[in-house]
Structure formats: C-alpha cells, structure tokens
Amino acid sequence: MTLFLFLKTSLNQDFLKADLEKDIKDHFGDEKDIYVVANLPYYITTPIIMNILENKYPFKRLTLMMQKEVADRITSGKGGKEYNNLTIAVKYYANAKKVLNVSKNVFMPKPNVDSAVVNFDIYEESPYKVSDEAYFFKLIRNAFANRRKTLVNNLNQSYGMSKETLEKLLESLNIDKMARAESLEIEDFIILAEKLKNV
Predict the structure, then answer these.
(1) C-alpha 122, offset from chain centre
(2) Residue 79: which residues within 8 A CB-CB, separation 6 or more?
(3) Counting C-beta atoms within 10 Å of the first and last residue's C-beta, which end of the chain has fewer, N or C?
C-alpha cells in the first residue's frame, strides 16, 4: 500500500527542529512507502534534503521544487561545473532526476530565480558501501573545498599529508595526480576514503 503525505491537520513547526520520526509514526504508523511532495523554502533547501536523506525516514520518493541552480547541482554529471559534494551526497542515498524546469515568470509575485522539480527515488539500502559514512562525507566536502585547486592541494590542506604522498596514493588508485574533484565518480571517492583512512 502506498500513502501520500497529505495530513488532515496542519503541522505548523520548524521542519529542521521537528521530531519528524514521531510525526510520521503518529500519522502513518508503520507504513514504509510514503511519498513526499513539497515546494521547499529556497534558503534552506539543502539542509532539508540532507536531513531527510541522512535520517533515513520511511520515504519512498520525494518530489521537490527548488531553486533551479540547486537542482542542477543535485542532478549534475561528473565533470560539470555544477557537480560538487552535494551531488555525491545525494547520489549516495537516492537516484535523483530533474523532471521539470519552472520559469520564474509563472509566479506572482515573480521571484528572482527560476525553479525546477526533482524526483528523488530513495534507496532502501544504498548500493554504495562505505565503512565510515562520516569520514566519507567529510572527505567529499574537503575534496571540493576549493574548486580551482587540484584534489591533491585540497587534501593537502585538509589532512596535512605531503603532496608527494597524496600523489602516490592517487596514482595507486589510477587517479591522475592533477585531477580535480569534479572529475571523480562517487565510486572513486569511496575507494579514496577507504585508502586515506588506512594511511
């Protein structure tokens, strides 16, 4: 059985401070296939999405409208200028696809930015396996700390390892020592995280 997150009563509370687990239990019991449809506040889009994904609530799909720039980051492919740590973090938890661009001209009053709708099909279990999620997510944040710098330079600043050691480590993983973070797939970061943690 599939339920949509339509509540008979309005819950007027701060999403990021709410006890969402309790709210879900109160309104849906043990239901596991809940769909969420929402127009997110643009200034806290990323915290809301990551709160949902990291806490692994029983949502099967999220259909969310957000600022187009954020949607482009989330759904970007490797090598694109929008590709960043948010892209990889979302990919770890869900298959995200942009399904609709929404012009700012359809709103009244007209906002300053265009919007987009993204579907997030959430994995019951992530296909990507890491031994330490906190370490993995910290690595991808550090890797993208400065997009104009190479991966070696970003990691050198974050981990205090010599550039020579980092270059050898990357080469052992068949990663170009001059590579930037946006040239790596999620699988590359997973392998790199495991290797770095054991150095």
Answers:
(1) 11
(2) 182, 183
(3) N
By the 10 Å C-beta count (0-12 exposed, 13-18 middle, 19+ buried), 23 is classed as: middle
What confidence category does residue 10 fall into, taking pLDDT thresholds of 50, 70 and 90?
Answer: low
120: tokens are 């997030």
* Token couple for 167: 């270059």
| In the chain, where the domains are located | 3-122, 133-198
Q: Residue 118 pLDDT more than 60?
A: yes
The CATH H-level superfamily of 133-198 is: rRNA adenine dimethylase, C-terminal domain (1.10.8.100)
Looking at domain 3-122, does it have CATH number 1.10.287.110? no
Residues 6+ apart with CB under 8 A from 87: 73, 74, 75, 76
Contact (Cβ atoms closer than 8 angstroms) between residue 121 and residue 60: yes
* Helix extents (H) in the chain: 20-28, 45-55, 68-75, 85-93, 133-143, 151-159, 163-172, 186-198
